[in-house]
Amino acid sequence: MLKKITRITTQKKQKHRYNIFLSTPTGDEYGFSVDEDILIKFRLEKGMELDDELIKTLKEQDNLHKVYTLTIHFLSYRIRSEKEIVTYLQKKEVEDEQIAVIMQRLKKEKLLDDQQFADMFVRSRMNTSSKGPKIIEQELFEKGIVGQTAANSLEQYTPALQKEKIQKLLGKKIKQTSKDSFQKQINQAKNMILQKGFNQQLVLEAIQTMDQEENADQEWEALKFQGEKLYQKHVKKYEGFQLKQKVMEGLYRKGFHFDRIQQFVNEYIENQE
Fold it and tell me: Facing residues of 35 across strands?
C-alpha cells in the first residue's frame, strides 16, 4: 500500500532531524522521523509515495545512523580499540548485524585501527606512568589487542627506555627508604619494579650500575640510625656483651653487613660505656 508524504517538518529540539507525515483516509498523520542525512540520501520530499518496504528501510537506515552518530560521539573523547567499540554498542543493546555494519564503516573511514590504537596506548603509558611492558601488555589484552599487533606496539618500549625508567624508580624508592640497609632498600625496590612489569634482567643490570661509593655512605648513615634506635631499645634491659649481641642481631636482621655492624658496635656502644 502506497502512502504519500504530505508534510516534512523540522524538529524543534533537534534541527537536524525531520518529522515525516503520511497521507491517511482522513487526512495525514505522523509517520516517522529521519536524520537530515537520510532525508538527503533518499531524496524525501512532499508528494513522494512510499510503500511499506521503503518505509521499513528508511526506519532501519535512520536507526543505523543514530547508532553511528552515537559511536562517533563515543570516539570523540579518545581513540578506541575495536573491542571497546563492540562492548560499548552491546551495552547499548545494538543488534549484532548493526554492530558489524558500524564496525565496517568505521574501518573504511579510517576511524578505527587497532594498530594505531595500540601504538598510541603504549606511548601514553610510557610517558605518563611507571608501568613496565608486561603490565602494559596485559592492559592491551584487556582492550582486545593481542598477537603481532601488541608485539609491534611494544617494540617502542626499547630496553634503553626501560633501563632509564628503572633507574629513576630505583633512585626514587631508595630515597624513600634511606634509613634502611642498602640490601633491604634494593630488595624492596627490586620487588616494586618487578611488580610494575619490568624485565628482571634489566632490573638487575640497573642495580649493578648504581654508584657504590654513594651507596656505601648512605649505608653507614642508615646503619648508625638503626643501630642507635636498637641501642636505646635494649640499653635499659641489657648491658655489656648481651647489649652488644642484641644490637648486632637486630642490625643483621635488617640486612646490614657484619663487618659494618662490628665497626658500629666498636665505635658507638663502647663509647657509651
Answer: 17
Answer whether 0.90 is exceeded by the pTM.
no
Beta bridge partners of 22: 5, 29
Q: From CA 160, how far away is CA 67, in angstroms rounded?
A: 45
> Cell digits for 24?
491517511
Q: What is the pLDDT along the chain (273 residues), one digit of tens a residue?
A: 789 999 999 999 888 999 999 998 888 899 999 999 999 999 999 999 999 999 999 999 999 999 999 999 999 999 999 999 999 999 999 999 999 999 999 999 999 999 999 999 999 999 999 999 999 999 999 999 999 999 999 999 999 999 999 988 988 887 776 666 777 788 888 999 999 999 999 999 888 876 554 566 677 777 888 888 888 888 888 877 888 888 888 887 877 878 788 888 877 776 665
